[in-house]
């Protein structure tokens, strides 16, 4: 009789399992991240390492781009659903041209992390000396491009702007004499400054009109978003958990990871993290009107976006 009861219970268990069906498969998302590996680009990594994506039922794969239009193209092509840390000018220009992109959050407000540096013996002594000089930025429409254009406008300067890609390439071109300066973000480039081989010429903080503007944003493919808004929301919620962890309880661990990933001293990683404040990484898009105004002024778009277009462009998922 006991044997019969065991068989019956086993049968009930099997039936229940069959009724419940197989465990739900994780939803897959591909993400392009501009300049992946720098402090502010790491929330995507921490959301993965800390299991936030897994808890949300997501399987996320991410690749590195050189920023700006390259990130936009990675999303527009359809291979990646999200593009992170993209210059707001590139996002606005892509949308204005009819590309299927939408902004889902701010990534950086202002330019607390950007700096331009020169060799110690450079003829450039102050920011005013960049007039006519070969000055680098990463990619068209990127945060560095926007900062340089706004600085030129603010100080009435006319340097020769050159797209050079990431901080590594910029550093190489400056050291070889191809460029008069290099752009960077901490901790990259700080080693040369500490050795006395280079000095900071100016930082992004001097660009006054960008202080309260979302200069870098996170984007999503609009067609995918229309069909997968719930999945997109789960992704951004997990991303926000990672941002909160990185700037809160997990800051020490995050700094240690930054040092290990970039093979730099822990003290350099700590110094890099201090360039950023929670207010700079708040996810709500700030002062889009100003960004659109600058996009027109810098000839990234032909005319201002309408109120309806701006409402469509920014898709707040929280």
**Number of DSSP-assigned strands:** 10
> What would you call the quaternary organization?
single chain
> Helicity range of the residues?
40-55%
Count of alpha and pi helical runs: 14
Give the C-alpha Rg: 23 Å
Average pLDDT reading: 91
- Order of strands in the sheet with the most strands? 2-1-3-10-4
The helix/strand class is: alpha/beta
Amino- and carboxy-terminal Cα gap? 57 Å
What does this protein structure show overall?
It is a single chain. The chain has 318 residues and is α/β, with parallel strands linked by helices. The protein contains 14 helices and 10 strands. The chain has helices at residues 2-20, 43-49, 52-55, 69-76, 88-96, 143-155, 167-175, 190-195, 222-227, 229-246, 251-262, 266-273, 288-297, 307-313; strands at residues 27-34, 58-65, 82-87, 101-109, 115-119, 134-137, 160-163, 182-184, 198-203, 214-221. It has a 5-stranded mixed β-sheet, sandwiched between helices. Helix 6 links the parallel strand 6 (134-137) and strand 7 (160-163). Helix 2 (43-49) crosses helix 10. The longest helix has 19 residues, at 2-20.
